[in-house]
Amino acid sequence: MTCHSKRIRVDTVRGSRTIANFCWASILVCGATGFLLVGISSCIGRDLIPGLPSEQIVFIPQGIVMSFYGIAGLFLGFYLWCTVLWNVGSGYNFFDKREGILSIFRWGFPGTSRRIRICIPLKDVEAVGLDVREGPYPRRSLYLRVRGRQNIPLNRISEALTLGGVEEEAAELARFLRVSVEGF
Question: Rounded to an integer, what is the distance from CA 154 to the centroid of its chain?
Fold first, then answer.
């Protein structure tokens, strides 16, 4: 979503709170819980999951391996749920011509780096760049080339944008900033 006037432009950036991440986190936690329950069932000799007999699974080595995969899957699933709940990677790009600043803000993981903010003078922005890679996993990213710094990405790499949409966004931002577009 973009809000802009003649002097101010704000582009919001979606974070990790997506439907795909919700689905993967749910599937991962459910599957890992199943693995852990089967491993525990083989250890105690009782069926913890109705309809799934555990007599065929010997605790050593299969039950231990199932329990290990269940615990590892729960850790990964809860990690993914935390990134979804904290909406890691979300934020905004704020361009202010009147003040002459560019402010990039992103939410990170809790701790000292929870709020990530980069402020750059607009006069240091040299170009709006476009990185397009086609293939089985296409990547279309928009970045700023800033004098004396590395390229600064403006959108998520995993964002599913069409080539025309990225080109239009790059051209619109370059017009607003009055800089050139590179990488076509």
Answer: 13
Residue 157 confidence class, pLDDT cut points 50, 70, 90: low
Q: Tell me which residue of 106, 137, 100 sits closest to 120, measured CA to CA.
A: 100
Q: What is the pLDDT of residue 159?
A: 62
Report pTM.
0.81
* Cis peptide leading into residue 50 (ω within 30°): no
8 A C-beta contact, residue 114 and residue 135: no
In whole angstroms, what is the distance from residue 37 CA to residue 28 CA?
14
Three-state SS at 140: strand
Per-residue burial over 71-93, b = 16 or more CB atoms within 10 Å of its CB, e = otherwise? eebbeebeebbebbebebbbbeb
Backbone phi, psi, residue 144, to 5°: -110, 135
What pLDDT is recorded for position 101? 95
DSSP H helical segments within the chain, as ranges? 19-44, 64-86, 163-177
pLDDT in tens, 52-92: 777 788 888 899 999 999 999 999 999 999 999 999 999 99
> Which DSSP helix (H) or strand (E) runs through 183?
none
Residue carrying structure tokens 């002097």: 7
- Bridge partners (DSSP) listed for residue 11: 2, 93
Q: Residue 42 is encoded by which pair of tokens? A: 């083989």
